[in-house]
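Service request form, structural biology core

Requester: graduate student, group of Dr. S.
Request type: structure prediction, single chain
Budget code: on file
Notes: please return the result as structure tokens.

Sequence provided:
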Amino acid sequence: MKKDIHPKFDLKAKAVCACGAVFAVGSTLPDIHVEICSQCHPFYTGNEKVVDTAGRVERFKKRQAAAAKAKIKK
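Core staff response, request fulfilled:
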């Protein structure tokens, strides 16, 4: 490996989640900000959590409701 071309790797970098959890990870950055971690991810917690981007979930639910009404009328 060539010397002085690789970034410095820090084993005690701080990762901060949107839910407030803070934990140490290995990274080339000193601080990392994430939206979802193991303390708030639905797979690990067993709770449903909707991460909505630009109202897509509401549009999907609206289409599902309209489709259900159309089935009932037929």
